[in-house]
Every structure is written in C-alpha cells, then in structure tokens.
Amino acid sequence: MSKEVLIRTQDLSKTFGTTKAVKQVSFEVYKGEIHGLIGENGSGKSTITNMITGIHTVTSGEMFLEGQKYEPKNQLDANRHGVSIIVQEMNTIEDLTVAENIFFGNEELFIRNGVIDSKAMNKKAREYLDVFGFDKINPADDVVHYTFEERKMIELVKATYFNPKLLVVDETTTALSHDGREKLYELIRHVKNRGGSVIVISHDLQEVLELCDSITVLRDGEHIKSFPVTDEITEDDLKKHMVGRELSGKYYREDTHSNIEGEVVMSLKDVNVEGILSNINLELHKGEILGIGGLTESGMHELGKVMFGALENQTGTVSLPQKNVEIGSIKTAIASGVAYASKNRDQEGLMINASILDNVCLSSMDKLQRKGFISPKRERRFTNEYATKMNVKMENINQFVSALSGGNKQKVVLAKWLGRDSDILVLDSPTRGIDVMVKASIYELMQELTKQGKSIVMISEEILELIGMCDRLVVLKDGEITGELLREEGLSEEKIIHYMI
Amino acid sequence: MKNKVKSLVLLLGLLVATYLVFFILQPTRFGSAESLFILLQQCLLPSIAACGFYFVLTMGLFDFSIGANIILSALVACMLSVQFGFVGLVIGAILVGTLVGVANGFLYLKFKIPSIIATVGLMIIYECVASYLAGGNSYVLAEEYRILGQAPWNIIIAVIAFAIAMFIIKFTRTGIYIKAIGKNEPMAQNMGVNVSKYKVIGFILCGFFTGITALLTICYSSTVIPVQGMSSMSRNFTPIMGCFIGLAFKKYVNPVISIIIGEFIIAMIISGIMTNGLDSTLQNTIIGVILLVIVAAMGLKNKGKAEVVK
Q1: Is A344 inside any structural domain?
Q2: Transmembrane ranges (chain B) (predicted)?
Q3: Would the CB atoms of B191 and A73 count as touching at under 8 Å?
Q4: What are the pLDDT digits (tens) for B98-121?
C-alpha cells in the first residue's frame, strides 16, 4: 500500500524571545498512522504540535496539509482544516455548559435567526457523548461540576466530533486513570480506523512503542530521526536517540571517585516533619555533590527546604558544625552561607517582573550597602560581574527576568547566590525545563564550584543526572532514607529505582 | 442540582432575613405591602444598570462612569423631549447611554490602561460635558412625560430590559464569548474569539442598559442637576453592589434574577436604616461596611480568589 502524506513540515522554526525552541524541523505524518513524537523536556515536542494546531504562530518555515500550504490562524482555524488537539492542561472553560464547550467557536451550527438553539445544541452534544459512552455527563451542566478526568473526556469529544484528519494528543495519558487511558486509546484507534492520523506525545516510551506506527525523535529543538516502529526497536534505542551520543562524553562528570573526605559542613539530626519526613540523619561534606533522589512525593523537595530553614513545623536540628550555627530560619541560613534554588523557579526563586539587576542584588543588599546607602553604580558592577560569570544570555541587566528562557532564569538564580559567595548550595531540580546546552553549562559550573570547596546538594527527579553528577546519592521514599549509594560503587538506574519504589 | 436549590434558598433567605430584621425593629414604619411596592420600583433603576454592568464585570473589567452616564443621558433626553416628545425622551436616553458605552469601549482599547482608570477619567469628562450642556441650570422633565416612571410603565420597561439581558446572556454568541473571556481570556483568544471586539461590545451593552436606567431616572425624579468633582460616583454604588451579588450566585442562579433580588435587598437595607432614624454619616458607614462584607464573602466563596478586576 502506498503511503500518502497527510501533513509535512518544512524547516519549521519557533523562537520565544532569545530562545530557539524549534530549529528547522522537517518531518511528515502519513495518512492513517499513529505517529509518536518523543524527546526530553524542552526538546520542542509541544511547541511543534502547538504550531500545527494553531496555538502558536510559526516563526519561520512552512507546513503542508494534504499538499496544500497550511497556515492556521488559531485553534479554531486549525479545527476548520480538520486538525485538533487534546492538551496536557485543562482546556475547558468554566461558566460554560458542557455543550457550549464542545461547540465553542462553532455556534453557528445552532444559530437560527441570531438566536442559539440550546436545545438542539444539547441534543447534538448528547449524541456525541453517547458515542463514547459518557452517559453520566449532562450537556446542559456547567463544566465546573465535573472532575478533571470527566472534563478531559469532554475535551476528547470537543476535539473529535467533527472527524478530524489529524488529532494531536499531547501528554494526556499521564494525567488519566486506567479507565480514562483506555477511553483515550479507543478514541485514537477510532480516528485511525476512519483514515485519520494521530500524533501522540508521551514520556511513557512503552506506551509509544505499543501504540505508534512510526516515531519522530526530537532533541533540543532539532529533528533527530524518524522511523517506522518494528519489533526490534526497544525502549533503550529510543532513549539513545533522545539523549544523543555526545552526552555520554563530557556532559556529566568523568571521574568515578566519591569525594566525601572533606569535613562535615552541614549536619541533619533526627529531622522530622509530620507526614512528610521522618528520622532524617544526613551529613554534607566540603566539596561534595550530594544527590537526593526519589519520587516527587517522597519528601525530597521538602528536605531541601528544611536545609534552608524554610519549613516551620520540623523537629530535630540542621546545623553547620564549622560555624557552630543552627539553622532555624531562612535568615540564619542566608547569613551563614546557605543558598537555595527552588524547584518552582518562577514562583519561589525569582521576582519575575523585575530586572536581572534587582534579582541578583536582592540577597546581597547587606554587602552592597555602605552606611545604609546603596550606590546604583555598585549594584550595576555587582550584577554585571555575576551575570557575566554565569554567562546569562540577555540584552542588558535591566531586562526583566520574565523575558528570559528557563535556562537563563536559572542562571540568574545561581548568579544571585554566587554573588553572596554562599558555601552550601541546595539546588532543587536545577535543570528542570532547561535545554541541553544550558544543562551542560550548569553541570560544568557545579564541578567548578566543588573544586573551589563549595558543597552542593542536588535534588532531582532525573535519575540520569544524579548518577552523572553526584559523589553520593541518598534515595528517599515516603519521607525516609531508603538507600545511600556512593559514586565509586557504580550507580545504576535499576539500583536507584529499587530504593525509590 | 443540590447546589442550585441551596443557592436559591440562600438568596431568598437573605431577602426574607433582611425584611424580618427591619420589620422587627420598626414594625409600624417598615415593611407594609405599599412601601415594599415602592421599594420594588426603586430597585428597578440600579437593577437595569447592573444588568449592563454585568457584561463588563464578567470580563474582569470595570466601569466607573455609570453614574455620569446616567446624568448625561438623562439630561440630553430631558432636553430632547422638549422638541421631540416621547420619542426624543426614550431614544435620546438610550442612544446617549449607548454612545457613552461605545466611547468607553474604544477608548479603553486605545489607551491600553486598566478600565478602572480609563472610566474614572471619562467619568470626569462626562460630568463636565453635562455641565456645559446644562449651562449651570437644572432641567425639569415636563409633567406629561413622567408617566413612564410610574406603574405599570416603569415595570414594563424594566421587564423588557431584563428580558433583553437574559436573552443576550443565554441565547447569543456574545453571551457565551463574554463568559469565556472572563474565565480564560488566552484560551478564548486561541479558540478564535476576537477578544477586543467583545470587550467593546461589553462596554456598549453596559452603556445601553445605563441609558434605560437614565430614562427611568429622569421620569422618577423629574429633575436632572449636573454635578462635578466625581459626585456622580454615588450613583455607581447600587448598580455595582447588585452586580457583585449577581456574579456571586451566577453558577447556580440566572444572574439577572440574582441581580434583581440583590438590588431589592440593598433597597430594603437602605430604607430600613433610614426609617430607623440613623444620621447620614452612620448610614453611609453601614453601607460601606455592607459593601466590604459582601465582596469579602464572595472572595471566601471562591476559595480566597476574589474575581480580579483589571
């Protein structure tokens, strides 16, 4: 059977400010196939499908739908071309009824003499809901009365009732229960059986292999490879393409030595936080990178806050033996040289709507002031010094942080703490949502800092980076330390996962 | 829908409770059928304006020029009635009101500043325009036209206005899109909704209903006296209050209904305070407290997230 191309992109690119999210990607999806789109966080998967479905505008490049030039103005326009999307987040509008949501933008189907015929609208919605067996959903109800999952199901109907040629499913499965997933798979196969095509974005590689006819791999905004799925292809093959060969080289640390000989700079004794952490005893050494791994809910993020004195309801002690200080508040933590980069960078790590200068200087006001006054000149010099040291990509130091990419925002956070000359850096998910190049520079910086005698606590959900960077790795499960592994003993993913679950 | 019943009960309960409080305090002077009917007619004015304001407030916008619009529209209507009779009166009020809405909408878009500030500035201008037009005089509506402000005519006009508002909210694309913009503007934009257009439409609708309020206002009070220095603000107060109540209950009760009930409650409170002989300073204090309590209660209802006004 000869395969017909449904959609083709030609040198498709997208730029956000100074960040190139998608770089000249050309790939095609055939009619009647399920096409998997995979890549690490920040590889540009969603950005590409958002351009295809009219959510983002195209910076440069072209798209062709069934051989015709295709330039969707917005999501609705894409729908009219037979292209629709189910996104990760909630995409129904509260205050509108189920039927109004399903037919949003297409009200003219039910307008008679300028009046919307709600009865006909509800009736039609009922029919479509019944096709999928969603008999518990009432078209006339406000969507606010339904659960997340039910609202996702409403979105499924909204995205498919007009028999789309191309359906995009953007990481929807992870948010759904088993039943919800089954419904979604059923829908995907339904679209395929009718001759339509589906693009599936998923982190669950097993799912991708089972579901998809072909796969496209993206890395750092670039098209790496497209290939049909055969029985020989394994999850590991996909991973290899996603991470890329050069990463096994100088990306992470190269030595295999555990550097934990330095004196103890931070010590946690019997730390308990009700319902979150229990009996944590831990020591951090000078010049060490201590990794903390686990599942999101394991308490590891809270442990980072404990080290920074940012939790209030804990028992036990966090002390800095050399300085003879006990950390009980953020204020003492900062004063005694502890720095903390939050996982929620935009909310807890930065003042988004303020300049780079304001952000970098904020925690060093005491150092910048002379007799109670702060000289703007000194502020500028200070900011320039550390922003340059961190290689922040910016127009100038007065630029607002909100305009920077994720990676550059993280650099500003680090510049802020380096400016304070902090000895202990607690970094929670330091590379979250950051592209490969910036990741590499952050890893490099971490090594540089430990050489200078600083100590780092790296909390991360990415096992690979923990293996790649840490001298010692502590694994948390349900608020307790379940394992402690040294770099030199050889860390493997399986070993770590074993302690995690 | 349990919640629907609960909300209606709560709303009607508030109505009855307010009545009982004042009736118990002043059984002889408050709450006769006659005086309630007068109160009902009183609350029609802010209710109609609140219906218009609803379209603006739903989108997270604000209109502070309602009071100034009422004065300006009433004044022009009064002037036109001299030449064109009933037609001049009715068309004049509604047309001027709507035109003020058009101006509000376009200037808000053009200025790109928060609607609160834009409409405060415009309020001052509308007050001045009315003062220029009046040339320092107050205008009195001729006796024969005041009949529109009396039952049953005022009630007929109000019912028509309420029906139009309900219809727009429930059965037109405009109603759906305005709700959608209020709830999630980026998403609505993405779905192909021309957000700027519907914001202007919201202001125009607000002006249109304000115009109807102006018509009844001049027929009720017969005299229109232009004011300056933001004094027209006091006329904003009741429509805004009623609209907040309408928004608070919108999930379960048709907003037009809850606006009317809300305005009736407010009218009872104000008249109840007056019959209790409190001095005007204390009256105003109590009204201010009530405003804060209602808005704060709304915030609590929405889990601490009071509707943001841009």
Answers
A1: no
A2: 7-25, 37-57, 64-82, 88-109, 116-135, 147-169, 200-227, 233-249, 256-275, 281-300
A3: no
A4: 999 999 999 999 988 889 999 999
The predicted pLDDT at position A41 comes to 66
A115 contacts on B by Cβ (under 8 Å): 167, 171-172
Position with higher pLDDT, A433 vs B96: B96
Please state, in angstroms and rounded to a whole number, the distance separating the CA atoms of residues A484 and A493: 14
Residue of A nearest to B59 (CA): A95
Q: From start to end of chain B, where are the E strands? A: 139-140, 223-224
Same domain, A131 and A76: yes
φ, ψ at A285 (rounded to 5°) = -100, 160
Q: pLDDT digits over A186-226, tens only?
A: 889 989 998 999 999 987 788 889 999 999 999 888 999 99
The single-letter DSSP state of residue A4 is P
Residue of A nearest to B255 (CA): A95
Percentages helix, strand, coil for chain B (3-state, rounded to 5) are 80, 0, 20
* Same domain, yes or no: A377 and A317: no
Which of residues 53 through 72 in chain A touch B, CB cutoff 8 A?
54-55
**What residues make up the domain containing A378?**
350-420
Q: Which of the 8 DSSP states describes residue A347? A: I
Helix orientation angle between B195-221 and B173-183, rounded to the nearest 10 degrees: 110
In a domain? residue B260: yes
CB contact under 8 A, A104 and B251: no
Confidence of residue B295 (pLDDT cuts 50, 70, 90): low
A120 Cβ under 8 Å from any chain B Cβ: no
Chain B interface, Cβ < 8 Å to A: 167, 170-173, 176, 179-180, 182-184, 187-193, 250-251
| B184·A96 Cβ contact <8 A | no
CB contact under 8 A, A95 and B191: no
Contacts (Cβ under 8 Å, ≥6 apart) of A449? A425, A456
Is A270's pLDDT higher than 90?
yes
Cβ atoms of residues A300 and A306 within 8 Å: no
Q: Summarize the confidence of residues B178-186 as an average pLDDT.
A: 89
Tell whether A494 is within 8 A of chain B (Cβ). Answer: no
The answer to whether A106 contacts chain B (CB < 8 Å) is: no
The CATH number given to whatever domain includes residue B45 is: 1.10.3470
pTM comes to: 0.71
- Express each pLDDT in A220-256 by its tens digit: 889 999 999 998 888 888 878 887 655 444 678 888 8
A22: closest CA among A35, A34, A10, A5?
A10
The CATH code of the domain that includes A442 is 3.40.50.300
Q: Look at residue B309 and tell me if it is in a domain.
A: no
Q: B310 in a domain, yes or no?
A: no
Contacts 24+ apart (CB under 8 A), B192-196: B192/A73, B192/A74, B192/A75, B192/A76, B192/A77, B192/A105, B193/A105, B196/B109
Contact B172 A115 (CB under 8 A): yes
Chain A contacts of B167, Cβ < 8 Å?
115
- CB B171 to CB A118 under 8 A? yes
A142 part of contact set with chain B, CB < 8 Å: yes
